[in-house]
Queue: 4 jobs
Job 1
Amino acid sequence: VDVKDDMTQSTAGATPEHTAPALSRRALIGKGAAAGLGVAAASSLLGAPDVVRAAGRRAPQSTVKITFAALLDQTGELANEINQFNHMHSGRIYVDYQQLPPVATDQYTKFVTAFRAQSATPDVVQIDVTWPAQFAPLGWLAPLDGYVKSDYLSQFWPSARTVGHINGKLYGIQRYMDVGLLYYRTDLLHAYGAAVPKTREELQQLAAKMLSGKSKTGIQYGYLMPGKKIEAIVDEWLEFIWGAGGGIGSPGNLKVNDATAVAALQYMYDLIYRAKLSPPGTSTYAPNDILALFQNGQAPFMRNWTFAYALANNPSKSKVAGKVAIAPTLATSGHSGHGCTGGWVLGINAYSTHHDEAWQFIDYMLSKGTQTSLSLNSGLISSRPDVVDSATVRAKLPYFAQLSSILSSGYNRPQLRNYNPFTTPLQAAINGVLSGQGSAADALNGVQSQVASLT
Amino acid sequence: VQTVRAVPTEQARRVSRHRGGRGIQARREERLAWAMLAPTLVALLVLSLYPALATIVYSFQHGGSFGIGMTGFVLSNYQRLLHDVQFWSAFKFSILFSVITVAGQMVFGVALALFANREFRGRWLVRAAILFPWAIPTATNSVVWAYMFNDQYGLVNGVDVREAEKVDGATRWQGFWYVTLPLLRPTLAVTLILRTIQSLQAFDLISAFTNGAPGISTQNLGLYIYAQIQQFGDFGYGSTIAVVVMVVTLAFIALYLRAL
């Protein structure tokens, strides 16, 4: 019951600025009732969305105002990009940046609420890579096929252009990439004369050796990984599966409890409780928490996302700045590591009344110039190889050379319309095992029946 | 329309009661009472009853996503409850959470109230300290507590928590038991009902503190409803669990009204 109260606000506040012209008395009553009843389903019964769409038409030649909803950007780069666009299109298009909270699930809730209310805003949305497959089948995203030709798409990383491909249509293109990485301390590797570990065994031996000499190295832990009940632990578990040559099947036929999958989770458990390389509190740590330990010089290795690179190498925030490098995530012998890819996708709200202007903005955001600025100023990985590989970007961000190869060997999570019913029980199961609540096999067997037939 | 001018005199009341019927004054007061209640009643009907009924209707529908394309009148959602491990885990945790938190609140709440009621220097400071947490949103409070329990830099892990109060003499205890407590009974009854309802419907505290972890061991019904409706878009099943919460809440209320 509580949840529905949220809908009230968005139904009521769907398009406050569109209400002025041409609203019949009956329509107004309908709209008011829809807002008052507090259930978005009511709005379709009362015909409110048509009102919204009709009223949204504006007189030509005035500036079209569109709203872009994206997570808060602390670097200021996004705001600068938008300002630049507004300057270039002065008098024609004005983009308003609607800042969303940094936690993905909070953004998800906001988007779902707006879409369910068939709100015309935000016009352009920046959504997680797992969301297009959830939103598009519900008719919430507008197809981009009318704007995009295949040679246009070839400008982007393969996963950046396939992530928005759902049921034969294109619903979004990725703005920037993310991928799981193994972080390591160059100074400690050098001190032990060791090569960068590629396999679980190599890492385990090296970390144990470093840990036994902790008076010299100053470390307390051998390997840091997120263990909190969040999306990152599913991604990390997938990386251990992929790094052992395994997989979890395909939509409609998912298999999360085969031998490789159980072994991967068992290995995560062993890192904490048997090898004792990972902190006992791992099951409560998010990526930020382990980054803090790593920045404090407390571990030689860490699995984290790309955002950690700049922060681990920032002298004002990190005691190990300048001594941190990246490598592919761990594999078993005979296999190679595959980082889990992520990132954020641009798409158009199907209920927007300004699709053309929305596409112009997306096109600008994906252009080489804007993307170069994105990488240079915020350190985020452009979805365009020509930016990541460019001399300008490489000069400032030399580690992009490694990122480029890690990205091309990265794997996507399954593209599921029901992604949340897939990941939520997995998060709970993995976190339960890492908290010492039960065996890896039991936990994954319990999830299998829930997720096997999800599409 | 005539305005009600004055409180009827004792004599007038006695007269009207003597006549056996309700006086004009009484009827007028009743009308006024209804008029004053009307806005609240309308608001309650629209804002509470409608969603409650909608939830019940949803609980008999299935299919679709985020409420779009739902069909039928089915019992499958209720059948699914019976075999859903997560539901029963959440159900048990909700009851446990209610019993422990409400009992704790009543015992410590009364103890604190009695303490703050005594005459001593600096009492205003104690009262302010007791009221201060009310000014902090639950979610904020939960995040702060989560930090206090963090194993790397938390306050609680490592600090020796000792008992602050010692037990007073027997006479005081008897005074409390036979005098104070009976006087507080009506207030406690209302508090008990309100706190129980609130604890059964808890969401923000648990969501911000543990989000159900480890595993699903602290996931209560509120969190499970949120996952089903807001994360999975399964309005039918989520509503079914919400109906269970409604029924359990009503059962608790009935129990209290009977017992107190």
Note: Confidence is low (pLDDT under 50) at residues 1-8, 160-167 of chain B.
Job 2
Amino acid sequence: MINNLQAFHAAIAAVAPIDGVSGDGKTIWFQESATEAEKAAAHAAAAAFVDSTPEGPVVTPPPLQELPRPKHITEA
Amino acid sequence: MSSLDTMFNQVGAMIAIPCTASGTNAIALSPNVNCPALSAYNELGGYRFVAVNTSTGLVTAQYNGLGFLPVYHGDGVTQAGTADLVIGQQYVFRFHQALNGGVGGFYFESPSQPVPTTPWYTPGGRLTSAPGVPVSFVSNAGATSVWYAPYLHPFVPIFNGNNVQMYQFASSLNDTVGLQLFMGSSASWPANSAFDVFVILSGGVPALATVQWTNLTTRALTLAVFAGFLTNSGTTLMRTNATTTPSVPANQATFLGSFVTGNAGSLTWIFPGNNIAGAFGISNYYNTVLFTGNVEDTQALYTYTAAVTRQAGAHSYNQISLLQTSSERAVTFENHTTNGCAGAVSAYMLTGMGANSTTSNAVNGIHQAESTVGASACIETSLFLTTTGFVTVSANELSDGTHANSFNINSTNTLSFKAWL
């Protein structure tokens, strides 16, 4: 399944006139004007497409630090 | 000589004296020539006559000018009334002193009738693709027979040329299969054609017979209401098997419903499902059942840019076909889609439904982006049809011609229907 379907569509549309693409990357709907060379280029672009990860970049949280105890709290 | 007259009258008092009648509701009876002309009513004496009119109200009668008395049915209470006397038919009025509170009256003896007095009612079965299953929830992609299975009861009314009678179409009271029309993929029922189904008398017993429509939306044979149910309006050639087409006189074929063929001599009855189109090739006129179903498109989402209407996802399964034998019952379709507009102001998309068209919509819903962020939204459309014939409703879509709008983003777009079949 393509995560960034808009980017995938744009990558294919950049090399061939298309009406759309399927989210599983298996189907490209070409316009009637598409030539065989453009169709081949589109399939090549689909195969070379580098998809983004579904969750986006991994963010590592900073290490936990012990916070200073408020001064107005006293232990029993 | 007086003794002979007395004996003559005594004999006459023991029989039903032949009389001539006059009147419509007040029937005056005069003894025929050479028949006893009695001077008083005698207990259980009878008076036979042929009605010269059909009664139009409460009936009284008198014999030989002896005075009018009410005429009763066999219960001695219910007075004969409208249409109890039928012109040209023979009756006997028999005097009984205890009737009419002791004043006296007549029992009304009817002639035997070839016409059954039992009422008739609408056909009791259902046309089905599954033998013995009048309401089938099982898909059948290539049924080569049409069955008429008992449902409410195992009888059908048929006009046999003289009168209407209820005929039992099941071989026995525990027969669940009923009648079969075997088509066997025969070209006698051409592919993609609609047919009306009737029940007729063949050799005196009920049999199924068909008449082809002009096309999928035009019935060739005019139906006529006869005795309260639909029949053939004129003499018609009807097909009872691949090689036999008997001529059926007007009104002697009782209409049951219709079916449409897929391939020659077969029909389809398919419930929709995940990525499965629905197709219902049988429509009953009587004893209809409300069927429902959904085509859910579980395939991956997709983009589509063209401002050209097409079947949703270019998937041929996004449709439901069904036959309606009569426009009396509305059919409902609903299309639920979840889509995402491209990130551009004024980017838009439409989803809807087409009736017998995947290139134009009978009903549309639109979703348009208001910012460069884009947004997803649901579009729900409803289509109500009152149509006669075969119709295919498809989930359709189109885009704005520029932007890569996303369709079926949850892989749950659904086309639904409700129809009485």
Note: Chain B has a mean pLDDT of 94.
Job 3
Amino acid sequence: VALELAQEVIVELTRAPQHPTEKAVPLSELRNGETAMVVGLSGGRHFVARALSLGCTPGTRVKVVRNAGGGPLVVELRDTHLGLGRGEAGKIWVRRNMSAS
Amino acid sequence: MTTVTTGIKTLTVALAGSPNTGKSTVFNRLTGLSQHVGNWPGKTVEQKTGTCRHGDIVLSLVDLPGSYSFSANSLEEEIARDYVAREALDVLVVVVDAASLERNLYLVREALELGGPLVVALNMMDVAASEGLRVDAEALEAALGVPVVPMTASRGMGVSDLLVAVEAVAADGATPLSSRPSPGARAEGLLEELGEMLPADLDLGYPRRWALLKLLEGDAALAAAFREALPEAVWQRVEAFLRQHDDAVLDIVGVRYEWAAEVSSRVLRRPQRRRVLLGEWIDHVVTHPLGGILTFVAMLFGIYWLMFTVAAPAQGWLDKQVIRANDARIESALEGSPHWLVSLLTDGVLNGAGLVLTFAPILVILFVTLALLEDVGYMARAALVMDRFMQLIGLRGRSFLPLFIGWGCNVPAILGARIVDSPGARLTTIMVAPLMPCAARMVVLALFTGAFFSGMTAILVSWSMVTLNLAVLAVVALLLTRFVFSAEERSFVMELPRYHVPNLGTVLLAAWQRLLMFVKLAGTVIVAMSLVVWVLSTFPAGEIEDSVMGMIGRGLEPLGGLVGLDWQMIVGLLTSFVAKEQTVATLGVILGVGGENGEALKPMLTEIMVPAAAIAFLALQMLFIPCVATVGAIWKETRSWRWTGFSIGYMLFISFTVALLIYQTARLFGLGV
């Protein structure tokens, strides 16, 4: 149920072109070195605003630098590194295998 | 073009920029030592101002708090953007990190939308070059339509060019409205609709269009301002409209970043093959789940080592050479005057001032190391590594470092809590920091455990007491974050800046300024409260036994009886308010062995208390109200007597309750009585 709710938020927030074969997954599910494209953000206002102002907008290419499977993540986007709590990374929705147009 | 002026002309200039762009270094280069450091009115955020003379022109400069955007995502950003949007600036300088151009252009774009006179300081050109990045400043200038000055402020390069550009822009005035970038078609439409809902003469002191755009972005601080100013019915319509379009922020921010990416791709040339940077190798270790914790532990060990090998001897030296020497000087100068007068000046005033002074070495170490770690770029990594653990008590990674420093001394812990970015988490950190068992309390702990227990039992008792403090800290932090600041969203999204060679000048200057602030603000409170304690323990008889303090101790004896303590112990506890280790000296005086002799005190203590009462006393002492210096620091950082009072009140309550539980349980089972 919780996941469905999150999906609802994301559907509303999504601005990236739809891709029929790939489902959106939370950023926290990506492994070290994987790249993906941000398609939406869910979560509280403060988190969304902070993430956006740091450049994590829909359409942005993001690379996971470190995901230890537990604890925080390090990601790279727009030539900068961001540290994210695991919970926060779970609220950033991405699609794999999408090359930036 | 330029107006010919006679005499000296003053220009008001503000420096904005993201953290880690070298903004402070630019500011220091411009102002030199003509800086004034204070707080922003009513806020506990540092405000730095200064002047810079250049020919006939004097620049009056303000260094705005570091901000990634002009949205109020943090207190720093709110202050910076309020200043930029409301003040009539002659020029706004946005400092930009050339090595991280795309992300940094976001703030430039926001400044362009505001439309005031603007200069972009393209700083850290050396870092960009070392990474093989080439930024074409002229192309950037053409793309932005405002002057762009390439700089390497750490080496003083570009400073005079910046001054020339600032003066030229000041002479030209604001950018015409037509050239301001558009927030995009959808936002334009929404802006128009929103504008029609509001009275045309509504003036909140911000540019109207800008304020409406921020409202659409979901800015909480501006929403509160509008709510205040509008009739209830109008606000409800506006709020419904904003909720309906709460995804507009994605478009607005998206358009800005698209622009930033586009401009950056035009003016930035990347190396053919991307180099693996040294910082990435370092990060491999420093953000590793295990390696990160080991690095952090090593860093903390380093800070402690400095505190004990450098700060502690310096404290001793200051105490002996400055405080005691002046004691003697005052005593000989006032020979023949009444005893109370000498005592007032030495035990009262000088003791209080000495307390402030002897804190200086510890604070210098703290401020220098914190500023260094911040400047190098390590602090964000430390917060990242500790985040998962701090979540267990409702806080986030940034709170760990200040709390851990509290192990040495609570005062720097409270001052260090400024690095915590959300107000509720910062306040929680300040409230629980006095529960960290500081070094002074450990002195008392060691004396008592040594007097009553031996071998493993002594170690076990000491360990239990420290654990008790940490457990209470965890519970109080959880309660505060769960119930008092439950509405606050504490997310952890943080830039991990590039590693930099720290700028020693910037670090030392910052440490010096913070030390002066402490002496000025907390110092006054500490001296005043030390005087009160002196009065209470001196009058009317001159000896502590028969003083007001002694009488209070006797009066509280029935209460003390509940935890197995007689009046001497209560007075000993009460005087720990001046400084935690004061307990030992007071007990020495009252029990007649002198204030300087801990060893002689031990047998006396075992005579007047049973072991169960000693443990109850230790719990009471370890959890008791913060010392005056800590109270001064709490007041300085919260600017609230209510919160200061709360911290005293809750610790008083918890300490007595825990001591009561320990003593009464021990009695019930006949243990140690």
Note: Residues 289-333 of chain B form the longest helix (45 residues).
Job 4
Amino acid sequence: MIVTFGIQALFFIAVIVILQRSYKVDRNFTDYAVGGRSFGASYQTMSFLNTWYPGAMFTAFAGLAASEGVISFYVLTYSLLTVVLMYAMARPVWIWGKKFNLHTQPDLFSLRYGSRNIRALAALIGIVSGFPWLVLAMQAMGGLFHFMSLGQLSFSHSVALGVLLVAIRQIWTVRMGMRGVIISDMFQGIIAYVLGTVLLCGLIFWLWSKGHTLAALPTKMYQLPGLGSKEGPLYFFSLLFTGTIGGWCLPFIFVRLFTADGVGSLQKSAALSMPFSLIFCGTLLIFGMLASQQPAVASHPEDVWFIVAQQAGGTALLGVAGVVLLAATIGHTDGSIQATGAQVANDLIGTYRILSPGQLVLVSKLSMVALTLLAAWVACLNLPALFKLAVLAYQGVIQLAVPQFLGIFWRRGNKQGAIVGMLCGFATVLVLELFLHDTLGSLWGLSSGVVGLAVNFVLYASFAYLLPCSNEEQERVNDLFDLVALDSPVLSPNLPSTVTTEVQESGSVSLRG
Amino acid sequence: MRLESPPRRNSQYVWFKLNFILGLLPPVHWALAGYFAPFFGMRVTLWYFLVLCTSIALSVMFTYAHESAYRGQK
């Protein structure tokens, strides 16, 4: 127990030392919320990975690979397709972010649709939907510490310890904002995905030396849900589709598009994320499939990471496996807390009250403290419906996808369609999940989120054609799109441009630029 | 100083679209659902994911390399 907890403590101290040494006073809200848009491709890459792949990768998804086999590769597929979307969105989102001083995802909605209310609505959906996942991430720390104590700590005590650790870490998130999140993401990302991949390769070799091979796996481990499957013929499509577009609906993922120092850095980070994702996630899923042949894993697939590490390398390797998972979990939670705090200040309160940059930072910090305490308290309660609530929340938050993607790539949509579409899509999800859950089975495996998206899309497109914008509004939208047209200049700190001098530091979005 | 974005080739758009189609289109999943024959020592479904995911990764890496080379030439 001293060895396992000692390794976790060393890692945690290293993170704190890095944060302390890199502390810098934020000059304004742009510094605090998006790190002053100053990060290059390598920081962007690790920051994206550390937020995208949480600790649950080593438990839930490795466990899925161990219990269900090849179907678990959907997580790798949608993770890579998400990065393709990142590459496509990089140019318009970053340029608009720089020119109009956008800090959050709802800021972009507000700019694109020329509406203040849509900013608050998008923020509310993002914050409410993200909360259950934050609580689950804190609770997942309980599983980690239960294993690190070699079973000596009860699960409830382990959860309390994990929550305490996450809460302590947030002191630096609150103090340093996005800069602290990204700098620590670099170190945490190296531990979680570079050291993690090395460890996975070692464990795969160990499993192979024990005679476990992919060829020896039973046929059911290679089964995908087909036309006659009990899950429904569109179940697998639903998983992939909601995963692919859902990632960019999460506020703590989307804000990564604003922290880069240029379009080039953002696109380079997408290119760098690809091999990291492919190798890390692919190795993890193959590890899970191979490990399913270990008798102890078959009964507890979600613990595959800890079980195999301990069997292969004893307590020391268990401690290293714990550090890898801890690094992934902390990176995810601090990103989520930081983005939510910034949204409360900028998009909820800031929409209806004019706040100075200093007040925005203060409100963000207070919101982060409140969110951390609230999530820590809820995490210590034993709420049986929490996971169901989290799934429901994800189906809800993806309703942001229609106004987001169509708003970025299509000039025609308007605020009425965006608001009505989102609300009706969200309501469809709620009704299907809460009152008509049994009918979902007769929808060929489609999830409530996909049905909601269809409703959302039809409404958005209908409003776009049936309720045309005023000439002035269409001209404003055309100006936005012309700004990011392929033959317009790319804004970058390395590329002096007259446009960059127009950036405002008031913290508010100027709809006319 | 003005910097133009490079013209993205049609083949790159086709590659992106093909990846999305092969990844998301349900008939592709249905075709693979009952197919368990080994191919070069591995089951076809696992090959499908490995080839598809490698193709998605390479599409972005090649596009970035092409566009950054264009910027370098300018």
Note: The interface with chain A takes residues 1-5, 7-8, 16, 19-20, 23-26, 29-30, 32-34, 36, 38, 41-46, 49-50, 52-54, 56-61, 63-65, 67-68, 71 of chain B (CB under 8 Å).
